[in-house]
Design brief:
The chain is 18% helix and 26% strand. By secondary structure, it is of the alpha+beta class. It has 3 domains: 288 residues, TIM Barrel, CATH 3.20.20; 130 residues, Jelly Rolls (Sandwich); 108 residues, Immunoglobulin-like. The protein has an 8-stranded parallel β-sheet with strand order 19-18-17-4-3-2-1-20. Strands 21-22-23-28-25-26 form a 6-stranded antiparallel β-sheet.
Length: 580
């Protein structure tokens, strides 16, 4: 049954628990990035059982399984438009044999079977079969069908203004504007209030924007505290109960909502919608809310972390349902909520990977049309939009957490030239992104240009290295203070990435992000690598360098690594082994 109000949030799903490192409901640690194929970029909602079987066959014919690609994932468009007796069912024209039979076919090839759903009421293409309120039923179906991978989207989500949801759902994800707070007999006016975090601001007559940045688009950096709170200190002579009242004005829009959380320290006393004010600029006093204070100094917090907490809770509900039915299940769980709620902060608790932005392309293909990808764009629909954000997010990924997901590979779609395809692959491998192919595999033949990119065993080994460390950007040609943390969207630059590997090796990638050839010499010293990555980058008398594209092996007897010139959009990537 679809709830009419967000769930009460358990302590382990609260914002205050995001940094505790604890995973929930049996979520497994130690998994490397997923490798496979997803139907969306290739066929959109037009995928069929026949096409899926052809893709599975091509995995074997092309030897992709032997290279580590293993998941065949059905995306949107595979279900009936509505539930049947409360259950998911196959669209009978496109998938006549049913999902269990298709999963069996994929498993017979030694591959793994993936499916798609949504934490909202509908899927993004519109089918009214989202998991919201049906987590137990859907978990049972997925286990019966032998599903190994779940991609779960964030459209039509009830508790946020997500894609295709109502804009006024922002009422749940922002606090009301606040003008004053009364604690006992002491009143704190606007000049007394302080905003902690990056999101909220103090304007002339109120605090506004108390909530979490929307990360769906590329505008906001992922680094830093992406949410905010109103905080104030209250000194009490004795421990006991006291009342808090808030002077506020509600709204149903970004920056001004209706939901308010009140805590003293880490103990919550209010977490609900406030009564509506007469207008967005008409302030009213709330009824007195009882809280407990301790003797001495108390930190009063007024906030709304529900954008993150609600979404974590919704993804957790499906994982819990799976774990309740089969605690030892091995389903890989991919959150596709487009970075909206800053999942880099919380998704590690329940998911194996999390999308960092909206889709990498909206021009998906069909049977006979390869679709289109771009190198640059003003929004998320390009290689560089996704890379520019993901490249500074290494602190959020790892074997004990999961992986930042800059979306599926567009290699093989129209719009990208061979150099762009090569660099796209190198970027994703260096950043430990999931390697989900998004092309019609009938366009690939063994040994051709596309094959040599997606089947580059050296790059795949970099992505799948047992150390599980995402690369850091250790240098960029644009002015910067911290190359590994600054969110840079000017693409007229060269970046140098370094990724620690097992056995004291490391990978170096020199990347020309721009549309012009660069004739300069680009160098990085071992000391700089160690400054960013620590003593795991070892000093040696000399190093062996293997070029992942040409296979050429060279020796470097210095601690300076150099590339002379880079073609537009191209990269030079090496696996570096210290010689002892």
């Amino acid at each position: 049954m679809i709830p009419d109000k967000p769930d009460r949030i358990s302590k382990e799903c609260r914002f205050d628990a995001f940094k505790d490192g604890k995973v929930l409901y049996g979520k497994k640690k130690g998994r490397l990035p997923a490798m496979g194929w997803n139907s969306w970029n290739a066929f959109g909602s037009g995928n069929t059982e026949e096409l899926t079987k052809i893709m599975a066959d091509r995995f074997i014919e092309l030897g992709l399984k032997d290279l580590g690609y293993e998941y065949i994932v059905l995306d949107d468009g595979c279900y009936k438009e509505t539930r049947i007796d409360g259950k998911l069912s196959n669209e009978e024209v496109k998938f006549p044999s049913g999902f269990k039979a298709l999963g069996d076919y994929i498993h017979s090839k030694g591959l793994k079977f993936g499916m798609y759903n949504d934490i909202g009421t509908n899927l993004c293409a519109g089918a009214e079969v989202g998991t919201c309120g049906f987590e137990d039923e859907d978990a049972k179906s997925y286990l019966e069908w032998g599903v190994d991978f779940l991609k779960v989207d964030n459209c039509y989500y009830l508790w946020d203004n997500a894609t295709f949801s109502k804009p006024e759902n922002a009422r749940y994800t922002f606090a009301p504007n606040i003008r004053a707070v009364r604690v006992g007999d002491k009143t704190y006016t606007i000049s007394d209030l302080c905003v902690a975090g990056d999101r909220g601001t103090i304007e002339d007559d109120c605090v506004t924007g108390i909530g979490t940045y929307d990360g769906t688009g590329p505008d906001a950096s992922p680094i830093g505290i992406r949410s905010s709170e109103v905080v104030l200190e209250y000194d009490s002579d004795v421990a006991g109960e006291i009342g808090i009242s808030v002077e506020y004005a509600t709204g149903c829009k970004e920056d001004q909502g209706e939901w308010l959380q009140i805590a003293v320290g880490d103990e919550f006393f209010h977490d609900d919608l406030m009564g509506n004010s007469p207008a967005e600029d008409r302030y009213i006093w709330s009824k007195e809310i009882p809280v407990r204070v301790k003797e001495g100094n108390n930190l009063i917090r007024l906030m709304n972390h529900r954008r993150q907490e609600n979404t974590l809770n919704s993804y957790a509900r499906l994982l819990k349902a799976l774990a309740d039915l089969k605690p030892d299940h091995d389903i890989m769980y991919s959150a596709c909520e487009w970075g909206k709620t800053q999942p880099q902060n919380w998704a590690y608790k329940v998911c194996d990977s999390w999308r960092i932005l909206n889709d990498i392309t909206f021009r998906v293909g069909s049977d006979g049309d390869p679709g289109h990808g771009d190198w640059t764009s003003d929004y998320t629909t390009s290689v560089m939009s996704q890379y520019n954000k993901a490249v500074i997010m290494d602190e959020f990924s790892g074997l004990d957490k999961g992986w930042n997901d800059p979306d599926m590979l567009m290699i093989g779609m129209d719009g990208l030239n061979p150099a762009q395809n090569r660099t796209h692959m190198a970027m994703w491998c260096m950043m430990n992104a999931p390697l989900m192919l998004g092309l019609d595999l009938r366009r690939v033949e063994k040994g051709d240009d596309l094959y040599r990119i997606i089947a580059n065993s050296d790059l795949i080994a970099v992505n799948q290295d047992s150390l599980g460390k995402q690369a850091k950007r250790v240098w960029t040609s644009l002015p910067h203070e911290y190359a590994d943390r600054e969110y840079i969207r000017d693409n007229d630059r060269v970046d140098i990435l370094c990724k620690p590997l097992s056995d004291e090796r490391f990978a170096l990638s020199f990347i020309n992000c721009s549309d012009s050839d660069k004739a300069d010499e680009f160098s990085v010293r071992l000391s700089a690598l160690r400054e960013y990555l620590g003593e795991g980058i070892v000093s040696a008398a000399s190093y062996t360098l293997k070029d992942v594209w040409s296979g050429e092996v060279s020796e470097n007897a210095s601690e300076i690594f150099t590339v002379n010139g880079l073609r537009a959009y191209d990269n030079a990537t090496f696996i570096v082994t210290p010689k002892k």
